């Protein structure tokens, strides 16, 4: 047994006054965490013979009583196929190119019982987690990371104070994929790619997270695509921090969080400043939900926020119904936002549709059809074809009062989500990802109820 004092949340998001600040909250409760797996409530054989032919599919619980035992037995490139049941364990995947797959997304459930830190931790290059549900963990649902120190993993991968990690000591894990994962009611992140690159997070659902539903951080180049996901009822929907180059967030539905999307730079992690992400073809709507965990900075009612990010492209997103601001660009201390292009979005019906609170003249806004802008006339004064302009007055979001949050564990569980058509198909490791990425293939969504699109 070991005691763990998990972080309450590290949040790097916009506050309604359009000032980004980094905040670290430590929980006042020390929770005793059982590091050993406790097994599964599903029924089946407990034979668990470690000898098996190369290329086998290892089945749980038919052949192994726990998922961890099957993972430990599997060879590189093999598939662990998990049958229906509730698995009360923390699983560590350290071998390369392993495919961890449930037979039914809604009936294969990893349950942390609000006692275990991480649901599934993947440090093996090219490994996959797909077609299963993970909930009730104090830190993360699914964690992909190059951080191999288990003590840091127990604290969410970033360390007890989220100090910038030595990327030489912990090089990024290369190759990862999360597909059709349902992650809900975990203490920090649902699907967390930290110090990881060359990956895909797709067709997944996240809700009820005290930090963010999906997080990509500390990677350069990231070589990562986040596509076709539904992200709702989190403190923050999708968060990109110090995540740079070859990074795309495409065709997602990001709604009813406190804050929709944040793209930020800070010095609490390595590889600042953030640079070169594409946010395109997403629905970012109604991010003012009261039945969500409190965002540590008090952020509420913001659609897309860029805080100190550079050279990002925000285009063809439907941004509507966010009470503080639709799209806002601002400067946190030490990291001026610069070179960001906000163009071709439909930003209407927000508190203030477009807000520029950055002094850098290189940020531009064009063709977003806003009803309200701050400063006034923003698109005409900071158009993407404008050259040689000076600094503009500081824009401001609409004033909003954030309602009290709810504990992450009390956010309602999601409905059943679409499962794999054929879970017995051969496994496909996460190699050669993300493949060709065509952001232009993701058009402006027609309405806020648009279905997420993977391709």
Commentary on this structure:
The chain has a 20-stranded parallel beta sheet that branches. It is mainly β and 455 residues long. The chain has one domain (2-299, 400-425). The protein has 3 helices and 35 strands. Mean pLDDT is 88; it is low at 1-49. The protein has helices spanning 67-73, 150-154, 378-381, and strands spanning 2-4, 7-11, 23-26, 31-33, 57-60, 79-82, 85-87, 91-93, 99-102, 108-111, 118-122, 127-135, 140-145, 173-184, 189-194, 196-202, 205-207, 212-219, 224-227, 230-232, 236-243, 247-250, 253-255, 259-264, 277-280, 283-285, 302-307, 313-315, 318-320, 325-330, 341-343, 346-348, 354-357, 364-366, 373-374. It starts with a strand and ends in a 74-residue tail after the last helix. The chain is 4% helix and 35% strand.
């Amino acid at each position: 047994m070991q005691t763990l004092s998990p972080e309450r949340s590290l949040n790097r998001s916009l506050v309604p006054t359009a000032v980004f600040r980094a905040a670290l909250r430590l929980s006042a409760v020390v929770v005793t965490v059982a590091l050993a797996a406790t097994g599964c409530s599903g029924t089946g054989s407990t034979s668990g013979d470690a000898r098996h032919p190369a290329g086998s599919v290892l089945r749980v619980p038919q052949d192994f009583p726990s998922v961890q035992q099957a993972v430990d037995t599997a060879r590189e490139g093999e598939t662990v196929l998990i049958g229906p049941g509730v698995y009360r364990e923390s699983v560590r995947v350290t071998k390369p190119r392993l495919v961890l797959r449930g037979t039914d997304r809604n009936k294969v459930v990893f349950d942390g019982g609000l006692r275990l830190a991480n649901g599934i931790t993947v440090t093996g290059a090219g490994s996959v987690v797909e077609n299963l549900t993970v909930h009730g963990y104090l830190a993360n649902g699914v964690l992909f990371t190059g951080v191999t120190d288990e003590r840091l993993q127990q604290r969410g991968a970033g360390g007890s104070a989220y100090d910038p990690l030595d990327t030489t000591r912990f090089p990024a894990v290369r190759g990862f994929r999360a597909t059709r994962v349902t992650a809900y009611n975990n203490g920090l992140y649902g699907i967390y790619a930290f110090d990881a690159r060359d990956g895909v997070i797709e067709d997944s659902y996240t809700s009820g997270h005290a930090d963010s539903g999906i997080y990509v951080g500390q990677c350069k180049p990231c070589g990562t695509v986040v596509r076709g996901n539904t992200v709702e009822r989190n403190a923050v929907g999708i968060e990109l921090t110090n995540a740079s180059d070859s990074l795309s967030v495409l065709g997602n539905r990001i709604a009813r969080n406190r804050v929709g999307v944040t793209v930020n730079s800070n010095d609490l992690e390595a590889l600042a400043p953030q640079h070169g992400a594409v946010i395109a073809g997403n629905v970012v709507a109604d991010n003012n939900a009261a039945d969500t965990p409190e965002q540590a900075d008090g952020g509420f009612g913001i659609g897309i926020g860029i805080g100190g990010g550079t050279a990002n492209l925000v285009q063809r997103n439907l941004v509507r119904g966010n009470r503080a601001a639709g799209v806002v660009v601002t400067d946190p201390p030490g990291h001026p936002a610069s070179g960001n292009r906000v163009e071709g979005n439909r930003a209407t019906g927000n508190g203030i549709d477009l807000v520029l609170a950055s002094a850098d003249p290189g940020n531009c806004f064009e063709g977003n059809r806003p009803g309200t802008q701050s400063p006034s006339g923003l698109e005409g004064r900071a158009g993407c074809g404008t050259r040689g302009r000076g600094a503009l007055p500081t824009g401001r979001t609409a004033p909003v009062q954030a309602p009290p949050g709810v504990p992450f564990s009390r956010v309602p569980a999601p409905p059943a989500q679409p499962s794999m058509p054929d879970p017995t198909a051969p496994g496909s490791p996460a190699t050669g990802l993300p493949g060709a990425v065509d952001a232009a293939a993701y058009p402006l969504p027609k309405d806020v109820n648009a279905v997420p699109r993977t391709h």
